[in-house]
Amino acid sequence: MTIFAALTVQQVGPFAEKHIRLAPGLNLILGANESGKSTLARAVMTTLLGDVDADRLHRLGHHGEYGGAIRLETPTGAWVIDREYDSNQVRVSLVANDHAQEKFHAKVSPRGRSADVIAYRKLLSELFGVPDVELLPAIFAGERRLVLEGDAAARARQILNGQILHDHQAVREDLLDRYFSLTNINPDGRNRPKPRKIQLSRQTIDQLRERLSHAEQAYALLKQAEDQYNTAESRLTAIQDEAELQEQELQRLTEYFEAEQDIQEAAEKRKILQDDKDRVIKLKLKKEQVETETKRHAEVEAIDRPKLQLLRRRLSMLAIADQREKKATELKNTPVGNRRILLVGNVLFCLFLLIGSSIAVSLRPELYLTILLVAVVLLLPPLGWALRLWLQLRTIKQIKQARLEDLETDREQALAEADALTIGGGFDRLDRDELQQVIDDAEQLLELREECERVKSQIEVLPTIDDLNDALMKIDRETALLGEKTKTMKQEQSQLTNVSSDRITSVLSRIEALDEARQKAKTERDNALTQLARRRAEMENPQSLQDHLLDCEAELAEYEIEAAAAYKAVQALDEAIDRYMGEDLVRLADEAQRHFNRLTPGLSRRVTLDADLLPALTAESGQLPLDLLSAATGDQLLLACRLALLDHLSPENPLPLWIDDAAVAYDASRRQRFVELVVEAAQDRQIILSSADRHLSELLGDRANIVQLDLTADDGVITDEA
User: Fold this and answer.
1) Is residue 636 situated within a structural domain?
2) Are 689 and 140 in contact (CB under 8 A)?
3) What is the DSSP letter of 346?
4) Which domain-ending residue is among 560, 580, 600?
5) Are 90 and 196 members of one domain?
């Protein structure tokens, strides 16, 4: 028996996150309206089969991932099915010893037809023990007023009819295969496009009759075939002769053209060799010039690149020392300016002011204080200005002295570093100009050496003068031989005077046209020969045609009798299948009648089912379809049919039943009988009820596992109490 052991949803309906545990037997999910009972039922179906409208389950205000997971307890163990509703990613795991082993993981779209979808549906069928997962909606009873959808109902009827219907269908297919192997005529629809044995036999008979009807013209046709063969043979011989002449002409033209090409190639090769010879001569002259120029710089021959770098470093140090000495000389000769003159002028002004003040005091002693105050006021600005000038002159002198010391230090360091560079060869005692001249000569010598090496490498790559002279003589001899050959060919064949690639192309085109004509003529000759042989055979064996015609007519009669018998057998089987297909509805209606009588005792109405498993009640006044029944009676009728269907679909592995909004609008007596029915049915299968009626939980008592749904006001998270 397969049961739902647990259900988890995230961001679905009113739930941020919800986990409920279910028990075998009878379960009651109890909660107020809008607490999420119907959402849980739909979430189970969406988790199992997917839903193209799954976004309706998405919790309002949430924009992330949402989905659900189901734990199943089956005869093969505990399984967990987890689906993301937005992406339809499904994981199926087998749980053993609290360890989950993943068995399946792929995208499973609700209407997909991929290999992953087929594998998942097969696994789901094995877990629930049903032949087709399209039958799983029969587990859920709620707002849908159908037992199963149309296609699923037809599939359920095929399963209910069992092996007998399968055997009938197999025999019927064999008979139809045999029938259509004989003829392409379909009495019930469009004919088959490909002709079968009967049609082929009729075509053969028509052909034989036509050939017999033309027996009088056989001799004329034979004569005509002989003439066609002779004409084709003559035409083929003429084409072959012309083709041989054209091929000989092509061979002569090709030989002459190739000789001309060889002469041109030899001339081009001789030009290349002559260019190489001239280049070798020029390179040797250049090498001699470079070696002569190198000897002119023998005095700096001992200087290599490392020594050249030392010389450049010494020259730069000497240049730095000269620069520092020049800057020190310029700094020493820099005049102080007019600051000293201003200082002397201010001092003299102060002396004159003091002398004048002394004279004024001696003349007017009574104004001593006034004169002293005026003298002080007049002395303060020039004294301050003189003090400022004196300080500036002192600071300038100190800065100048420090700068002179720095320049002298830099000069001494540069000279010391220049003296520390040991080069040898008398180059350590050279002054700056002589050193610059030595560096220039050394650089020029190094460049000459490199140029000499490049020239040597180029000379080594090229052939020697002797080899080039030998090659030129050889080419001249070959050119002379080719010239004699072409001259001889022109004398022998006058048409070779204007040979070109266009002329050769024209001959090739003619040969190709002759080849095509030869193949066509050969085909015509072979066809004429075949036709001639066939005509002769017909003339030699006229009786064989008549015998063959009689055999074909007898074979056609046998095929027609066999085809008629096969089609009559198919019609008989179709009638038997139609009669048998009605028996499953009778068995299912009888079982539904038994459950319905328990729910509504005393109601003398007969339960009937149509081909789409749509139930109805039949009374003395006529048939009452489902939409004319009250909501409670219609719900009870659907429940009875659903129980009957589940009993027949999987008798070996009872399927669970989920009833949403159970016993809504039931009166007290029918509610009591409903409780008795589900309690009894829960002995063999798991039944899950959802209801907002607490009185129903009181009727069930401890016979059911009660799951209470409570929605908190803080976070919207649903918790359960069992």
Assistant:
1) no
2) no
3) H
4) 580
5) no
The verdict on pTM exceeding 0.85 is: no
Long-range Cβ contacts of 300-306 (<8 Å, 24+ apart): 300/438, 300/441, 300/442, 300/445, 301/445, 302/425, 303/425, 303/427, 303/438, 303/442, 303/445, 305/446
Q: Is 47 exposed, middle or buried (0-12, 13-18, 19+ CB in 10 A)?
A: buried
Task: Count CA within 13 A, CB hemisphere, residue 270.
Answer: 15
HEC assignment per residue over 115-127: HHHHHHHHHHHHH
Residues 532 and 569 in one domain: no
Residue 609 belongs to some domain of the structure: no
In this structure, what DSSP letter does residue 444 have? H
Say if strands 67-74 and 3-12 run parallel, antiparallel, or are unpaired. antiparallel
- Per the structure, the complete domain to which residue 339 belongs is given by 303-424
Same domain, 332 and 348: yes
Give the Cα separation of 496 and 442 in Å (integer).
69
- What phi and psi values does residue 543 have, to the nearest 5 degrees? -70, -30
Same domain, 295 and 332: no
Q: For 58, which DSSP code?
A: B
Same domain as 405, residue 467: no
Ramachandran region of residue 661, left (φ > 0), alpha (ψ -120 to 50) or beta? left
- List Cα–Cα distances, 521 to 171, 288, 367, 509, 535, in angstroms: 57, 77, 158, 18, 21
Per-block mean pLDDT, blocks of 10 residues, the chain (722 long): 93 92 94 90 91 88 90 91 94 90 92 89 87 72 53 54 51 74 75 78 83 64 73 82 78 76 83 82 76 67 72 79 83 68 77 82 81 80 79 80 83 78 66 73 74 78 80 84 76 58 72 79 78 66 73 85 81 65 72 86 81 79 82 85 80 85 86 91 91 89 89 41 35
Determine contact, residues 609/623, Cβ cutoff 8 Å.
Answer: no
- Domain CATH number, residue 484: 1.10.287
Burial of 442 per CB tally in 10 Å (0-12, 13-18, 19+): buried
Answer yes or no: are the C-beta atoms of 446 and 293 closer than 8 Å: no
Total number of domains constituting the chain? 4
Residue at 623 is within a domain: no
**Rounded Cα–Cα distance for residues 421 and 428 (Å):** 8
- Residue 467, in any domain of the structure: yes
State whether 409 and 316 are in the same domain: yes
Measured in degrees and rounded to the nearest 5, phi and psi for residue 66 equal: -150, 150
Same domain, 332 and 379: yes
| Whether residues 177 and 63 fall in one domain | no
